[in-house]
Design goal:
It is found in: Membrane. Keywords: Heme, Iron, Membrane, Metal-binding, Monooxygenase, Oxidoreductase, Transmembrane, Transmembrane helix. This protein has about 575 residues and is an alpha+beta fold. It has two domains: about 90 residues, no CATH class; about 325 residues, Cytochrome P450 (Cytochrome p450). It is built from 24 helices and twelve strands. It binds protoporphyrin IX containing FE (HEM).
Length: about 575
């Protein structure tokens, strides 16, 4: 065999090495490209349409499985080797790049249906931006700041979500005749059913009548003895503090009262918090679990992943344990006969109608509504109370005006307190300036879209309707940021858009417990103002109370210390 010169050998070896490298590079590129095309197709063909939060846990799980299968497949093809692993990485890397580039470009592009609405660039890309902004549970400040930064009626706060600051926003999105429906947020409690968390309108309508019956003014009168009992415990506790000249942490006392009262109305048994002057463990769990909502309520897919894949994580566990506690309360109530009527009596009566053949659905409704009645009934009324008492301490002249109204009347008479103008003006004004659902109302536009004045909002857009901004708009209320109770009775000209104040929502899905909540607010405020002078405790100025407020779907104000002094 002729001997090849060394140089020729070298050249030939470089040539083949080059060929191998370019083949490898082509292979690499084609793997990457194939992955990217699949990623692109999956976005444009599937994920671009509809809602995916309910499937989020399954999607995450199936993507993990698919990644493992891709590795397995490549290892089977080329044996366990760096090449097999790098092939798998390349395909998966291509998929991820294709999928996310397509999502990113689309969301930032002028072709997106919400492209004309202003808002932070990162908010357009992903809801993770909003989640990050809410990491300290202060969504109300985020939403207020955005309103200042982007003056106008709308700000884009997510890829397909708008914050609406229009003075008619609540009326258009919630009012009678609206075609907007509840947003993805209301899938939070699934698989349990509950009136609040029911998106399907027909199902909602069918369930609503039980709640309407259980919380009608006629039924509330049946709970009057229970209400009076709880108010008496509260009065006694406040009187003890007044006699001892002790400051009262009003948040604790009024939260204990409201949860105790709700336990009593709902299941015929309070939580004993006022008597024992300490938090019940289940309510404590619930309040810890709320921090989940402070950060994640704007991204339901994260909450769904948390509940389904990480139910053992501390906050998710607190939430699930709190639900289990409420379910147990309902089971306990179902197995006892009560001589006095309570809210559960109505639910149990309805459950009996469903009978054994529908036992699964019946149990789900009972469980879901048991949680709702405690959570929606207490964690809303309690902060309303705290804000009202903050206003009474801050505006003592208004407290005195209420005193003039109540000093000669029976403050436990529902019909009487309903008609007292300044009492009701103060309650309304406190709820307007300090809404208990500061950013908690959201809706989805119908497929054909909705007009807000002259602006068209396209279909399937999630809307956030922040009461913390809308109810103070100058276009809705004259001197909108000031506390003026008279606007609700003697100065109606100071209200330009009455539906910009909707503390209980509007329309078909308005608060079912509106009457009960207002009754409690009126009776308790009138009773305590009649008996006590209320002021800030020494060293208290109410600043930390507002500064430390968290927005965890419901407002969780900071600590407030008050002094109660018995009127002589
Ligand atoms: C001051 C106290 C309260 C406030 C500010 C309040 C506020 C609200 C708001 C704004 C909504 C509508 C949410 C939406 O449209 O997305 C609502 C719904 C609801 N609330 Fe209340 N609420 C209070 C007290 C109560 C009480 C005491 C109960 C019951 C015991 C209750 C039970 C419900 C229920 C069941 C719904 C759902 C209604 C439906 O979807 O048909 N709420 N509440």
């Amino acid at each position: 065999m002729p001997k090849l010169p060394f140089i020729t050998l070298l050249r030939t070896s470089f040539f083949f090495r080059g060929l191998e490298l370019s083949a490898k590079s082509m292979f690499f590129h084609s793997n990457f490209l194939n992955g990217s095309v699949v990623g692109l197709a999956v976005h444009l063909g599937i994920f671009i349409r509809g809602e995916w939060h309910m499937q989020a846990p399954k999607l995450l799980f199936s993507h993990l499985i698919l990644s493992l299968v891709t590795f397995g497949f490549n290892i089977r093809l080329s044996g366990f080797s760096p090449i097999a692993c790098s092939n798998a990485y390349t395909v998966l890397g291509g998929y991820v790049c294709g999928l996310f580039s397509s999502i990113l470009l689309y969301r930032l592009s002028p072709f997106h249906r919400l492209s004309k609405f202003p808002g932070p660039r990162l908010a357009r890309v992903s809801k993770l931006w909003h989640v990050w902004q809410c990491r300290d549970s202060r969504n109300h400040l985020v939403i207020e700041r955005l309103h200042e930064e982007y003056p106008g009626d709308f700000v884009r706060i997510g890829p397909s979500e708008l914050a609406v600051y229009h003075p008619d926003g609540l009326d258009i999105a919630l009012g009678l005749g609206t075609k907007c429906t509840k947003s993805d947020f209301f899938d939070m409690m699934l698989p349990n059913f509950s009136l609040v968390f029911t998106r399907d309108q027909a199902t909602h309508h069918a369930r609503r009548h039980v709640w309407t019956k259980a919380l009608s003014m006629k039924s509330i009168k049946l709970y009057q003895n229970r209400i009076n009992r709880q108010i008496e415990v509260l009065r006694t506790q406040i009187r003890e503090s007044a006699l001892a000249c002790e400051e009262v942490v009003i948040n604790d006392v009024l939260y204990w009262f409201t949860f105790d009262a709700m336990g009593e109305f709902a299941f015929g048994e309070d939580f004993g918090m006022m008597r024992e002057k300490k938090w019940h463990f289940a309510i404590g769990m619930f309040r810890r679990a709320l921090s989940l909502l402070g950060m994640f309520s704007s991204a339901m897919w994260i909450i769904r992943i948390g509940f389904e894949l990480f139910p053992w994580a501390p906050r998710a566990r607190d939430w699930l344990s709190m639900e289990a506690f409420c379910h147990k309360q309902m089971d306990k109530r179902a197995s006892t006969k009560s001589s006095e009527i309570d809210v559960a009596s109505f639910f149990l009566e309805e459950a009996e109608k469903l009978g054994e053949s529908h036992s699964a659905a019946r149990d789900k409704w009972l469980k879901g509504d048991a949680t709702t009645v405690i959570v929606a009934g207490s964690d809303t009324t309690a902060p309303s109370f705290v804000f009202i008492f903050y206003c009474l301490a801050k505006y003592p002249l208004d407290a005195e005006k209420i005193y003039e109204e109540v000093k000669n009347v029976d403050t436990l008479e529902i019909a009487t307190v309903t008609t007292l103008p300044h009492l009701n003006g103060v309650i309304n004004e406190a709820m307007r300036l300090y809404p208990v659902l500061p950013t908690g109302i959201s809706r989805l536009t119908p497929p054909e879209g909705v007009m807000f004045g002259n602006t068209f909002v396209p279909g399937n857009t999630k809307l956030l309707l922040p009461a913390c901004v809308i109810s103070k708009l100058e276009s809705a209320f004259v001197r909108g940021t000031e506390f003026i109770p008279e606007r609700w009775y003697s100065k109606p000209e100071m209200i330009k858009k009455k539906h910009a104040f909707a503390p209980f929502g509007l329309g078909r899905m308005t608060c079912a417990g509106n009457g009960l909540a207002m009754t409690q607010l009126r009776l308790v405020t009138a009773t305590l103002v009649k008996e006590f002078k209320i002021s800030f405790a020494p060293g208290e100025d109410g600043v930390p109370f507002l500064r430390d407020m968290r927005d965890q779907l419901t407002a969780q104000p900071g600590q407030l210390k008050l002094l109660f002094q018995e009127r002589t």
